[in-house]
Amino acid sequence: MKLSQNTKNNLLIMVVVLVPWTIFLNLLLLGGAYFLSLSGFVAATIYTFGLHTFAWQIQTWISVTLRDRFPHEQHNSVRLWFTVFLYMLITCLSIRLIYWLYDITNFLGCEFYTSNYRVAIVAGLVVNTFVTFLREGVERFEKWKIAITENEQLKKEYMQSQLLGLKSQINPHFLFNSLNTLSSLINEDEKEAEDFLNQMSKVYRYLLRNNEEELVTLQTELQFIESYFYLLKMRHGRGLELQVEVMPGDMGKLLPPLTLQMLIENTLNNNVVTKDEPIVTQIVSATGDWLEVRNNIHRKHDECGLTENIENITKKFWLLCQKEVAIVEGADERRIRIPLINETKMHLA
Predict the structure, then answer these.
(1) What is the pTM of this model?
(2) Angle, to 10 degrees, between the axis of helix 172-188 and the axis of helix 114-170?
């Protein structure tokens, strides 16, 4: 059975607090008799420490339960003071139980005074208040350290994402193919060449403007994909199709820039594009805050699998919103479900 922990250092804090508290409480209730007999000293120490350890675990369970029930920052004060109250109640009961057992058994032949019991209760309440705020401080410090680590990791993921996105667009092959297509259009259809150049400028303008943005709206990303897919379509013709069915309410939701472009690029790298069997990519809204990117499969013999593009996207979404990208691939179709991020729910430290 795994014990509840509200901090990674819960066990260390417990030992540091309970060892001196055990000695102090027994010295207060038993006086000098506590040290006269080795057997009495061991029995009193084990009993008191064991009972308070059990009480500590109950308090920890309460802390974890309240933290899970009231996770938002605006509930911190209510949760903290409710925790203090319950901690004090448990401490009073445990001290009362120790005092009662010592008294009815005439432990070590000591006389037990009510005044000592009252002092023990007051001391216990003071210690409990201190421990409550100590735990809260340690927990917040641990969360802060985790947040710092996650932010650093997220920065690395963004840098890698920017590099991958730029590499996929501004590499010599893509630029050469685009310019070659433009050159052909200039000789064949000046109006279409002008449209192609306009869409090409939109693609590169998006890259230059958004390659350092952490998040963009789905509407912005889809506008970029429209221009990007136009360039691909001019090259592959009827070999490519794009279908977009996104709910209007999802357009303002957020995702990392170039996410959809990376998914489409991965599809092209892994499938044969022909006019007879076109690759159809569908971008559709899914239930809840999710977007699904689907494509049929005509695998290349030298397919490169999911590649680092998909791995980068998966890591990034986990850091941003603690949700996993779902990938389902069958014999004829692949579906990748990515979360859409509501700004108010975004998990950024």
Answers:
(1) 0.53
(2) 50
